[in-house]
Design goal:
membrane; transmembrane; mainly alpha; 3 helices; transmembrane helix
């Protein structure tokens, strides 16, 4: 067991400039996942808000009565 630990430590020491420890890889992946989830939730909420307003404006404009002066000319 200690041989494996020593081998892993040497491997991390040999790869300078990059930290490939399990904790850092887990932290980076969980941070990436949480940022991605936050980004997607912001995009989806913006899309849903815009779709709500489009639907609302469509309903309002379809329910508006035509002006009498405009309908008599046709």
């Amino acid at each position: 067991m200690s041989v494996i630990f020593a081998f892993l430590c040497i491997g991390v020491i040999l790869i300078k400039g990059k930290d490939f420890s399990l904790c850092s890889m887990f932290f980076n992946s969980s941070l990436t996942v949480s940022i991605k989830a936050l980004f997607l939730s912001k995009i989806l909420s913006a899309i849903l808000i815009s779709e709500f307003f489009i639907l609302f404006l469509t309903l309002v404009t379809s329910c508006m009565p035509l002006r009498k002066g405009f309908s008599n000319r046709a």
